Amino acid sequence: xxxxxxxxxxxxxxxxxxxxxxxxxxxxxxLTANGPFDVVAEADNPDACLTAARHHRPDIALxxxxxxxxxxxxxxxxxxxTAPATxxxxxxxLPASRHRRRLRSLGAFAYYDNTQxxxxxxxxxxxxxxxxxxxxxEDTIAPASYSHSTSQH
Length: 153
Known about the structure:
Layout: E1 12-17, H1 21-34, E2 37-43, H2 46-56, E3 60-64, H3 72-82, E4 87-92, H4 96-106, E5 110-113, H5 120-135, H6 143-147
Parallel strand pairs: 1-2, 1-3, 3-4, 4-5
């Protein structure tokens, strides 16, 4: 499986999935101002997420853990089948120690704590590079998940 093509300028193409438009706008601004990211689509529910993933084939899908009325964990499998070269990452204010293992078992590559948003662009870029290596057959782990695992347990 080959990675998705990046934006014409080489940026990682991102799909933001959160039911709160102001939070999506905040994350969009943070990513585009601080890293190699192009937010190609936004979605506020699972159906819109899958449609956007099918149409845009993003490099990264950044999902809110708590989509109003929807189980984000149940979205991960269909999203991976729709866009298998897309790195699925979850963002939440809830402690990683409670959710990371379950979400990784469902297929999420990384989990980010939204109380540390300043670090998000660097961690997301590093994890996408690791995910690309994994798609190419390397045995790898998301650097952000590994380097912060002991501090979040």
